[in-house]
Amino acid sequence: MEKINSFKSAMQQLDNAAKVLKLDKEILAILRQPKRILSVSIPVRMDNGEIKVFQGFRVQYNDARGPFKGGLRFHPQVDMDEVKALAFWMSIKNAVVDVPYGGGKGGIIVDPKKLSKGELERLSRKFIDLIYKDIGPHVDVPAPDVNTTPEIMAWMVDEYAKLTGRFEPAVITGKPLSMGGSQGREEATGFGGVEILKAAASARKLKRGASVAVSGFGNVGSFFARLAAKAGFKVVALSDSKGGIYAPKGLNIEKVEEYKKQTGALKGYPGTIDVTNEKLLELPVDVLVPAALENQIQKNNAKRIKAKLIIEMANGPTTPKADVVLHRRGIWVIPDVLSNSGGVATSYLEWTQNLSGYYWSREEVLKKLTAYMANAWKNVLAVQRQHKTDFRNAAFILAINRIAEAIRARGV
After folding, report:
1. How far apart, in Å, are the Cα atoms of 388 and each of 31, 384, 393?
2. What does the entry list as the binding residues for substrate (predicted)?
3. Model confidence at 1: pLDDT above 70
4. pTM (2 decimals)?
5. Which listed residue (105, 126, 234, 308) is catalytic?
6. What is the residue extent of each domain of the chain?
7. Fold of the domain built from segment(s) 55-179
8. Strands 332-334, 309-311: parallel, antiparallel or unpaired by DSSP?
9. Is 354 annotated for ligand binding?
10. Does the annotation list 347 as a binding residue?
11. Would the pLDDT of 20 be above 80?
12. d(Cα 119, Cα 45) in Å, to the nearest integer?
């Protein structure tokens, strides 16, 4: 596949929306660069006694609407352009779902699977040692992302408390319940995505029991698949990093999950056809859900996609050139900044509970999340119809207008 620069793609999306808005040059210039970039070298004592130095980043993109907010990922392919793009998209996502946050993102260049638990904890704590003066409940609020977990967030909150002399759970979201985490947070991204799926499928006039293929069967993809099936959709294909399975008559998600726990993979599940990740994207389904990596859908394979509706659950799975092809073909692409915003909406609810010291039940959290997703869909759909544009551009127009209003109110 063609190597895509994620930040260039993000800036193209910004420019597309700015043209429609006739955005002030001064505000456009502000939005084209992160407000602050933290780059740190992280020395860690390994189990064999040696010191190994890892590179870490935190990009604080824009805080016009509130504290920087975004995840931390541990991955060997983390690079600055990727993190900048993800931080920008977080600024957009928070404005789309209308929570009072700006956008940020962080990462460490590491394969966490090659570290012991002790090494992983020391790496996580040392990262906080190096950036703790630049984060905080009202400054920058990190969260889990690729290869980071509630346990890692708990270590970071504890390290922040040791350094500052006070326990402030609102400094990081996505924590275990015992550390001030929120009920409903684990399934929030998948839950929010299915709320968008239901609304978009209705607007697209898809038949009841429409077929769904999910590329990426991790935490988000598995919750999405399970909840989509419960909502009456027919999930016919799933994939993970090792490959995928296809069953035109539908899959029992709980049984597939049990099979994966036992075997470590989806491939070989009885009664299904093995498919590659690439082939899954091109299956004859009503709904395609890219829930894995960036840039899965590019110009060439966009021509072969048969789905009528794409619900983006990964960050940046569709390139700008692919967007043009899909829009021309009449395929609706509901962008990540809307579809997977349930995670950050619930992070906001967790943050709010931490600050107030008052906690809600799972039912209350998911009820509030449903309202956020419904409102976001309604607003994006209104902009899409007003400007007769694609859904991604509509979401960016909505978000950038909100961010620009905040910048003007603060004074350029």
Report:
1. 24, 5, 10
2. 69, 93, 347
3. no
4. 0.95
5. 105
6. 55-179
7. Rossmann fold (3.40.50)
8. parallel
9. no
10. yes
11. yes
12. 7
